[in-house]
Amino acid sequence: MTLLGEHGLQEYCLQTARQAHCAAEALVTLSAEAKNAWLRASAQALRAQADALLEANALDLEAAPGFGLSDAQADRLRLNPERIEGIARAMEEVALLPEPIGEVIESSVRPNGIELQKVRVPLGVVFFIYESRPNVTADAAALCVKSGNAVILRGGKEAAHSSRAIVDILRGVAEAHGIPVDAVQLVSVADREAVGHFLALSDWIDLAIPRGGEGLIRRVADEATMPVLKHFSGNCHLYVDAEADLQMAQAIVMNSKCQRMGVCNAAESLLVHAEVAPDFLPQIGEQLQQAGVEIRGDEQTCGLCPDAVAAREEDYAAEFLGPVISVRVVPSTEAAIKDINTYGSKHTDAIITNNAETAETFANQVDTAAVMINASTRFNDGGEFGLGAEIGISTDKFHARGPCGIKELTTYKYVARGNGQVRG
Amino acid sequence: MTLLGEHGLQEYCLQTARQAHCAAEALVTLSAEAKNAWLRASAQALRAQADALLEANALDLEAAPGFGLSDAQADRLRLNPERIEGIARAMEEVALLPEPIGEVIESSVRPNGIELQKVRVPLGVVFFIYESRPNVTADAAALCVKSGNAVILRGGKEAAHSSRAIVDILRGVAEAHGIPVDAVQLVSVADREAVGHFLALSDWIDLAIPRGGEGLIRRVADEATMPVLKHFSGNCHLYVDAEADLQMAQAIVMNSKCQRMGVCNAAESLLVHAEVAPDFLPQIGEQLQQAGVEIRGDEQTCGLCPDAVAAREEDYAAEFLGPVISVRVVPSTEAAIKDINTYGSKHTDAIITNNAETAETFANQVDTAAVMINASTRFNDGGEFGLGAEIGISTDKFHARGPCGIKELTTYKYVARGNGQVRG
User: What domain count does chain A have?
Assistant: First the structure.
């Protein structure tokens, strides 16, 4: 990575965006076969050049302590033969997904004889800003190109060598399969200001996707002149209804909270109906405590769970991403719904109940990207939902909501076929 | 309309937005029957109270010269029994549209047995900022409520009395049909700053839709903290291919340009393939001249149309909205596509050709909301496309493109139904 002067930097960003725009124009008409062949060839090339990848990765791992990365963070950065195989296989899986471009979403024949189609088309150019793990580089490139978009990748500096090696491999097999080489570009300058320059280029870039901490997302949302697909926090709620199967509830609470604590679809808040609280809270309290999870509860919760500490108001709005859970006893499903709509983050919210009507009320009235009925919040995920890989989980309501795969990277156009119709 | 102090104004806007948010929560679960009954009752009430409407409208017409409105603009403002009948009938037509909310857009059973549905839901609260014609007030209210959204209407001051009368009638029949009365609110303060206050309330308002001049749209896009559905200019292009039926081309050019010149789907630019230019341009030039349309052309055009004047570069990017058209002779379909993608505004672009392959190339490669093949650009319209009324025509690619009706005012949520699944 180099550092450029201010003018050179702006020029570099503009040129990168223009190249992406040109590539996108070519991608619009590329066949599914060409894109899928490139995906499979990329997977093969990643396997074949595993040694070069591991070498590049070693440079990133060496530099990790200098970036202040913890051991756990450095481990997420690490490549090994199994992980490279995983990256390659993910690209092959994207190749197996149905072709999104050209899909006729709706069609009709108008009374005047015009045949009208609503056809799925690419968005154009995606600017993707992300952190750490090298596999995200390959996933993003695969999803964008499969959906007919060119992508400008701005990865974290921690994974710079690994990302560069992956992108070089993907670009290396592009031309042979008729894919414009600039369909995938990795920003090669380290300057922080580059992001701001790209965000100003709405004439050339159609969508910005920031994936990382809340600070990054807010900055991008504030500065961007193009639409932004936002992935804010996951303050996911679990509601254990009066008519819940308490054994099922226990399993779902433990899985939602503890199976992987640092991810956006892990549960952060537990609401328990007052009728079952005396039965349920002491046992789940003990289990959570055994798993090392701190309970921050309201008065009733603290009365039922000896290890709980008193929650403050802000605990109910917090995304802990760690071994803490806020707990509240609620008098009714309506109260639970109100609580979730007030404190939740519209990401994933679950109900455990055997009453189908209560479940439907909850599903209809909780304003969230994904409602889980009698299932773990951890299932809100592109892979689990059958979208293939995902480029993020949108907490917006506009354009796309929840896990975003290839379809969410597309838009549509109307095509009207007539034989001379004019308007009277 | 009143003027409030700065603090009072902010308070008023916040209260209006909160009321809308509450109404939206109630609308989520309203039945199609309730919404349609309200739409039909509103139509009947508009007819029954036609005299009151005409009285209110007379006040607006009286004030029109004071607002500097031309006779033509004042005429667009005018209500009469036929126009009131038109407004009422439009509400009844919205009642006949299929219910959008609750539609299962996609569904699947995951390998772990979870039943996954992608369900259409309302966006929430829509802030609609528009100008002049009173029927837009009723259309917007009808579309928003049918799609389960609450709407905050900020109409033009020119139509203040008419809009108020219409909204009072619509609100008057709300409660009787179980519709929250604040599902439809008209901003009752004249302060220009009110718009800025509303645009800051992303916690309560989910979407802003500005409909009016480019200045208004840019202001809203710049200030809004929520997503904006933008309707920028319509620099619509017509391309007459070498293999066009020239008689058909003539009819489509004249209709696209002249049937109604001041609207966004009127044509502003004509591209003619060099092979047919010597045959086509002299005759269409004469016809356009007879219709009072000025031709601004390139050198070849000026050579073939005696009345044409030389075009400047900016003429090709202009939306004239009046009796002017820019004309250029192009050497190929590829050149026409490039021209449209460079100078067009992604609104509506038409090709006239008998070559199906050329038509498909054009449809695939022109980046626009609506491609018309052998049909007038004037057909890009919600009514003509079968969407019922429209709240605008989006020139964005994100969320919605082209005419926006009730579906475009919705989003979706995922509902996952399990029986205790946890993630392994």
Answer: 2
